[in-house]
Amino acid sequence: MRILRPRKLTELRLHSWSGHFQAQNQTPDILSIVMLVAQSSFKAAALIQRWYRRYMARLEMRRHCTWSIFQSIEYAGQQDQVKLHNFFSYLVDHFTPSSHNERVFLTRMFTEQRSPQDSQMENCGDYESIEVPDSYTGPRLSFPLLPDHATALVEAFRQKQRLHARYVLNLLHEARKHLVQLPNISRVSTCYSEEITVCGDLHGQLDDLIFIFYKNGLPSPERAYVFNGDFVDRGKDSVEILMILFAFMLVYPKEFHLNRGNHEDHMVNLRYGFTKEVMHKYKIHGKKILKLLQDVFCWLPLATLVDEKVLILHGGVSDRTDLELLAKLDRHKIVSTMRYKTRKNKKQAEEKGKANQMGSAERPSPWFLPQSRSLPSSPLRPSTHKAPRAGRSSSVPCGVPLDPKELSRRVRHSVDLELERCRQQAGFPAIKEKEEHSTSESDVDSDAEEQPEPTPEEWRQVVDILWSDPMAQEGCRANTVRGGGCYFGPNVTERLLQKYNLQLLIRSHECKPEGYEFCHGRKVLTIFSASNYYEVGSNRGAYVKLGPDLTPHIMQFQANKATHTLTMRQRISRVEESALRALREKLFAHSSDILVEFKKRDKDETGLITLSDWAAAVESVLHLGLPWRMLRPQLVSSLTDSKLAYKSWLENLAKEKLSQQNIQSSLLETLYRNRSNLETIFRIIDSDHSGSISLDEFRHTWKLFSSHMNIDITDDCICDLARSIDFNKDGHIDINEFLEAFRLVEQSCSGGDVSDCPQVTDSSNGVHTKASSVPVAQGASEAMPSSLLECLPYSP
């Protein structure tokens, strides 16, 4: 199309107007020409404005749909985490270990014990024995830290250098000593600083933290900071962010403050990547670092109060939030917000032992079965029924106050009696190796028993402030989208602010397109500091600055330079493509269930369904709450008489995945659906964070499964099963072998004839293994991991 210059265009218009006047036998004057030009210009401007508004509305609609996809999938993953943890928790609560080793393993699976080694972590021996080689070129730390040390640490991490494990442990020890002295709610005043900067979630994105320091300035006595939780997980630099934050906290203890988020939780870290990151970066000392980090997370303050007027906490509040209770509870007792731990006394233990001797008809049913009534409908709401906790010593009634030494002695004695009983039942003396470390393990149990447990109300208070989200409606209701915390309305916010004479609530926890969002009449401010959280260009990051007048000043940023070169349309298209790709994976992972729903709506068996039925069927399976009719053009490409050939559509979803891996569709669907759960299960079983499951860990865990499923399986069969999964025969099961075993078993179960299953090649030694190699153990085929796959708690 030829583009006319403005001058040429004006000449053409004047020529047309001249013809107009000649046709009307009128003599043109200047005023008439000017009025016609103005009228034409106004019409053109109105058309351009109308077109631009429609264009921007379409872009905004696409951006909103894209955002809904990302957020729905993210929250569905959090539901998976809560359900999977409750699944394991239920098994542990309703399983009585038959030996001391099983008790130690089950206790270690969900709780980080305060063993003597943990209580002595403040001693220098834990890290001073670690030598730093002369070849190490990374940053070096000496204590007490100086501002130059923290600045040098930021520069070293910016240049992709790694801090040596010795300095990591040293820094964590010093951070722990400082955090222990802090109150649950930190008090900050603008009288001592020019301004206070509040930052939201970082989620392991180091570029965002460095950008904030670059734009806003490094921490100093005049420039105070509050970081509002969720420093770790998802991103690849969580360790580096923690080291920087802890370093500045030690350098400026009065000006630099940290709040705990829901991701500062070792159970959440199992799923969202932080545990894996630590073990990858520090293969030798990773377990020690993780153990210390779990303890440090428990000591992080819960909230910060600025000038007694602005409350800063990670998630939100509820209609029962009590700041006085939060200020005085022992926050260190809240090891994880994923599960409320209950003590059990001797009577409960005896009743539990009798219950386990009863038939399967009287065995309690798990929450995922229809007849279940034993667990609450909301995963993070403990019911009034407190299931007895397995793995605790039961010889000492909890209601009787005892001296810690006496308590430790009695518990150790009960453990010895339990060991002796097990030896007598087995008919042979204990192995010497087990006797050598039984004392230390008894100390683990005794020290664990000495730890006071939080009350249900204390636990609920912490869960609410770490997991809750605001809503536009009045009231307070359970947060079923995340699976924990609550939704709180404007009236709940107003009541809390009035009760404690506050004027603003600052929280994080939710990704926002602009990096921030006001709600509840501008009395609640959400700040999110991880830009490009879902995809490059998906969202801005933001932080807020508070001066003496406490008026919030929002600063937005984009840490990725590539976003500045893209137009708005290019950014939205790029993010939309990523979101649709994630959604197609979700659809593929549930292809079988979706097909069943399609067939229900195709009563005439024509193979065609209407678009309305397509949208309803997909939503009934995935429960994502997405505008499927609006997404239909991106997800459904071809129609027949305004109807969808659903079998062809499902086949097209599978083509992309099947081209990447030579696995039949149903098996790959199972892996896509359960991979996150399987990886989390692997890390739960791998309780020592070694990166592989030992045969003992596998045996203890499988006894837990088989007892709950009422399957009689011997230790020999379990050992044979473990050895068959150990494809490279190194005595350990790594994550690839673990996932492969589930794939093979699902294949053998779905294919009917095991001999028809394809061979799998172990790339490490070139050995071809039949799928039937997994269930070779006699009596173990009924207890295959497929049973676990069938009851894996997943949500779309």
TrEMBL record:
Region (Disordered): 340-404, 426-458
InterPro entries the record matches: Calcineurin-like_PHP, EF-hand-dom_pair, EF_Hand_1_Ca_BS, EF_hand_dom, Metallo-depent_PP-like, PPP_dom, PPP_phosphatase, Ser/Thr-Pase_EF-hand_contain
Cofactor: Mn(2+)
Species assigned in the record: Muntiacus muntjak
Alphabetized PROSITE patterns for the sequence: EF_HAND_1 (PS00018), EF_HAND_2 (PS50222), SER_THR_PHOSPHATASE (PS00125)
Comp. bias regions, Basic and acidic residues: 431-440
UniProt protein name: Serine/threonine-protein phosphatase
Keywords, in A-Z order: Calcium, Hydrolase, Manganese, Metal-binding, Protein phosphatase, Repeat, Sensory transduction, Vision
Bias-annotated ranges (Low complexity): 369-382
Domain EF-hand residue range list: 673-708, 713-748
